[in-house]
Design a protein that fits this description.
This protein has a single domain (about 5-320), classed as 3-Layer(aba) Sandwich (Rossmann fold), CATH 3.40.50.1820. The protein is of the alpha/beta class and about 325 residues long. The protein contains eleven helices and ten strands. Helix 6 (about 190-195) packs across helix 7 (about 200-210).
């Protein structure tokens, strides 16, 4: 059975500032849907490092435009538009979205590109999904750059689940959940701007709105908050817990973490819980004035600090 979808016209992306990268496509990434990605070569042609950059809801690969110029100094950069976002196909029925569908699409792309020596770069849903990818073949991955994201961590997940049904919700996640379900046509770009303290120029706001020319294109943005696996009854919870054990007990790679201190949806407390479950993760870079979309507000700073840390870690390892 074919999944009904819409495909954002390329004309919507004509005036996108500061993102000169041409999309490539994986046909039939999952269920006949086309997935867009951007494959930017390393400045050093001899480098075999790959940075796999995964965004979250409701953004697209444009979110990584400040980090890409830094990361390509040491490796190839692959940015992915999740199904339902950016230039990727957008199913029009909420029931066609699931954690497993998105994870399968990402694994298909990793396999299609035969990616190895991967530095996983994740935030928001990019981490919720991306942090489970190494379970498929851990040897593909050797470094992690993690920003505000989450996995099913207890008791935090159960607390969030209870807060969602509370008459007096306290968490920023519950507030976001309520906001996202109040309308099928909320302003994506202005939401990103709001989390960035309303400091984004209007052309940047427009760039975040570009993939969504009408409500029919926003189904993923609307449904994603309801798919966050915070209950054992939800798709993705079990594999999220399995991933948590992997990062806590089996991960042997280098990790750099950055925490947006003004994030209310995934607050520092929740991020610190995640970081404490990543084996060998050092104290994170704290960004006190940065909100949820770390890449937008502090991308260059985070990318630069991460590369410096990874270089030090590599030198230390070479001396052993």
């Amino acid at each position: 059975m074919t999944i009904p979808f819409v495909r954002t016209p390329e004309s919507c992306f004509v005036k996108i500032p500061d993102f000169p990268f041409s999309p490539r496509y994986l046909e039939n990434a999952v269920e006949g849907l086309r997935m867009a990605y951007y494959d930017i070569p390393a400045k050093d042609a001899s480098s075999n490092e790959v940075f796999l950059c995964l965004h979250g809801d409701p953004t697209w690969s444009y979110l990584y435009r400040h980090m890409i110029p830094v990361l390509v100094t040491t490796g190839r950069v692959v940015c992915v538009d999740l199904i339902g976002f950016g230039r990727s196909d957008k199913p029009t029925l909420p029931e066609d979205y699931s954690f497993s569908m998105h994870r399968t699409a990402l694994l298909s792309l990793v396999k299609h590109l035969a990616l190895e020596n991967i530095t996983l770069v994740v935030q928001d849903w990019g981490g919720i999904l991306g942090l489970t990818l190494p379970l498929e073949r851990p040897s593909r991955y050797n470094r992690l750059l993690v920003m505000n994201t989450m996995l099913p961590i207890e008791p935090e997940s159960s607390e969030l689940a209870r807060d969602l049904i509370s008459k007096d919700p306290q968490s920023g996640f519950a507030a976001w959940h309520k906001y996202s379900q109040a309308s099928d046509d909320w302003n994506v770009g202005e939401l990103v701007n709001l989390t960035c303290r309303k400091q984004l120029p209007q052309e940047i706001v427009a760039a975040y709105n570009a993939p969504f020319p009408s409500p029919a294109y926003k189904v993923a943005a609307n449904i994603f908050p309801t798919l966050v696996p915070i209950s054992s009854k939800q798709d993705g919870y079990a594999i999220g817990r399995e991933a948590l054990n992997f990062w806590k007990y089996q991960w042997n790679g280098s990790t750099f973490a950055a925490v947006g201190g003004r994030d209310r949806v995934i607050p520092p407390k929740l991020m610190h819980s995640l970081i404490s479950n990543i084996r060998g993760c050092p104290a994170p870079l704290i960004l006190p004035d940065t909100g949820h979309f770390v890449q937008e507000q502090s991308g260059k700073q985070v990318a630069t600090a991460a590369l410096e840390y990874f270089a030090r870690a590599a030198r230390k390892l070479s001396k052993l």
